[in-house]
Amino acid sequence: MKNAIIMLSAALILLVAPLVSAENSTEIEGYVIHHNAITTDILTPEIARHYGIIRSRNRAMLNVSVMRKKQDALDEAVPAEVKAYTTNLYGQQRKLVLNMVEEGSAIYYIGDFLVRNGDRLNFHIDVKPEGERNYSPATFTQEFYTE
């Protein structure tokens, strides 16, 4: 029962996160890369504890998933090599450590990092779906308000 609650909460976070922070996606040949970032204070204590994430207005979480496009069915989550870093307005880069999470048929990559009020970060994500030879890039920019 506890695992079911955690899985349901995680699914809700993945559904709600796009509403809280604009959900972004990047289409590449045969795949869609979904990516978004949220401050971790919106996570429930149970979800944060489950994933080892500190809840705070001054911490954010990047969430990436890779979906194989299917013509006559729902897209399918696939494992991938995922690398990510941020660049701020001063050109400073910060590598993000992402952990793969598998829950049922869902596969996503999450990592948390510090943010300050007004931080405007450019996210650079490189994805190589399992079985593919090359990485494909995805980028987005987000500003964080922590006060």
From TrEMBL:
Residues 27-147 form the DUF4426 domain. InterPro entries: DUF4426 (IPR025218). This is DUF4426 domain-containing protein. The lineage of its organism: Bacteria, Pseudomonadati, Pseudomonadota, Gammaproteobacteria, sulfur-oxidizing symbionts. Keywords: Signal. Gene3D superfamilies: Domain of unknown function DUF4426 (2.60.40.3340). It comes from Solemya velum gill symbiont. Residues 1-22 form the signal peptide. Pfam families: DUF4426 (PF14467). The keyword Magnesium does not apply.
